[in-house]
């Protein structure tokens, strides 16, 4: 969708379509809410224990909706609010990165195979294999979310900079 050049949205914003930014925000929010709650909690205060998937996903989705609205109905007020939401989203993305890195550094799931939790010694080897597989999957999910969150952070910053530039250009006309 190409933005109409109405209100405070200038040609610099047309090249960086808010629809792309908004769609990525919403997808990232849905990924967080969809994949995050299924994670294994390894200790108190980790990603799953904090419920981070829900509040990160919610912020990402709300920011995506306002970014889309700013593209569909360009106005100074809505664009300014979308900029504010993208700045807030960038802060939450940084918090998410910290949580993903903390979770990545502490993905040991071998505690599940301790002798008190496994009924017979015959199943210990199988338990270790499954725990290592789950550990690799959790590491892969964390690395994927780190890459996507860095991309989301860059999109937030780019959107905010270009939208502020467009808003400042509009203010100079008055």
Automatic annotation (TrEMBL):
Pfam families: CD20
Gene Ontology annotations for the cellular component aspect, listed alphabetically: membrane
Membrane topology label: Multi-pass membrane protein
Subcellular location(s) per record: Membrane
Key word Transport present: no
Annotated TM spans: 12-33, 53-73, 80-102, 143-164
Domain of life: Eukaryota
Keywords: Membrane, Transmembrane, Transmembrane helix
Family: Belongs to the MS4A family.
Name this polypeptide is given: Membrane-spanning 4-domains subfamily A member 15
């Amino acid at each position: 969708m190409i933005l109409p050049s109405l209100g405070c949205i200038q040609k610099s914003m047309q090249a960086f379509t808010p629809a792309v930014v908004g769609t990525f925000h919403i997808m990232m929010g849905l990924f967080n809410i969809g994949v995050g709650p299924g994670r294994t909690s390894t200790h108190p205060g980790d990603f799953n224990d904090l419920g981070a998937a829900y509040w990160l996903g919610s912020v990402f989705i709300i920011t995506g909706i306002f970014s889309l609205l700013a593209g569909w109905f360009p106005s100074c007020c809505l664009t300014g609010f979308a900029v504010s939401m993208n700045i807030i989203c960038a802060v939450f993305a940084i918090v998410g990165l910290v949580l993903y890195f903390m979770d990545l550094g502490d993905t040991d799931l071998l505690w599940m195979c301790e002798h008190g939790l496994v009924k017979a010694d015959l199943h210990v080897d199988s338990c270790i294999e499954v725990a290592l597989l789950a550990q690799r999957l959790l590491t892969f999910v964390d690395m994927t979310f780190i890459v996507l969150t860095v991309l989301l952070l860059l999109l937030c910053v780019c959107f905010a900079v270009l939208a502020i530039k467009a808003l400042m250009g509009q203010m100079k006309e008055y």
